[in-house]
C-alpha cells in the first residue's frame, strides 16, 4: 500500500502528507500530526505535536513519548503519522519509529528512504535527531 511503512517487527504505519486527500481504505485508529499549527479536527483519535516545517519538534520529550505510544499501538491498531508534505517531519518520525523497532540509529534514515519514500528526512538536523533518538535526551 502506498505510504505504508512496514517495520521489521511487521508493524504497519501509514505516513502521508496532509496536503493530499486521505487515501482509500479504512481510516486510521489513531494519528500523530506533526505541524507548526494545530491541525483541523478529524473523526479518529489524534495527537498534535508542534513541529515547524524543516525543523525539529518543539518538545522533544513529548515527541519521544508520542512516538513510543504510536509504535506500541501499531501492533494492533491502524496508526498514521503525517505532516503537511509527508516527507521531512513524517520521515523523521518514521525513522525514529524504526529505531524503536530495532533498526540501528545509523541505518534508520536509509531504511525509511528505502521502504517509505526516497525524499524522507529532509534536513541535516532531522537526520541528526534520528541518530540521537532513544538516548536519555532526544
From TrEMBL:
Keyword set, alphabetical order: Hydrolase
A molecular function (GO) term: phosphatase activity
Residue ranges of every copy of the Swiss Army Knife protein DSP-PTPase phosphatase domain listed in the record: 69-121
One Pfam family linked to the record: PTP-SAK
InterPro entries: Prot-tyrosine_phosphatase-like, PTP-SAK
Name this protein carries in UniProt: Protein-tyrosine-phosphatase
Organism of this sequence: Planosporangium flavigriseum
Amino acid at each position: 500500500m502506498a505510504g505504508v511503512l512496514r517495520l521489521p517487527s511487521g508493524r504497519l504505519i501509514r505516513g502521508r502528507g496532509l496536503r493530499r486527500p486521505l487515501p482509500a481504505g479504512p481510516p486510521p485508529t489513531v494519528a500523530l500530526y506533526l505541524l507548526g499549527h494545530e491541525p483541523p479536527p478529524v473523526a479518529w483519535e489524534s495527537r498534535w505535536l508542534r513541529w515547524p516545517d524543516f525543523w525539529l519538534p518543539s518538545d522533544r520529550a513529548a515527541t519521544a513519548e508520542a512516538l513510543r505510544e504510536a509504535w506500541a499501538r501499531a501492533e494492533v491498531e491502524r496508526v498514521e503519522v503525517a505532516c503537511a508534505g509527508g516527507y521531512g517531519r513524517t520521515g523523521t518520525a518514521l525513522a525514529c519509529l524504526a529505531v524503536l523497532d530495532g533498526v540501528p540509529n545509523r541505518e534508520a534514515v536509509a531504511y525509511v528512504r528505502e521502504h517509505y519514500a526516497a525524499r524522507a528526512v529532509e534536513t541535516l538536523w532531522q537526520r541528526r535527531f534520528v541518530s540521537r533518538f532513544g538516548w536519555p535526551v532526544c
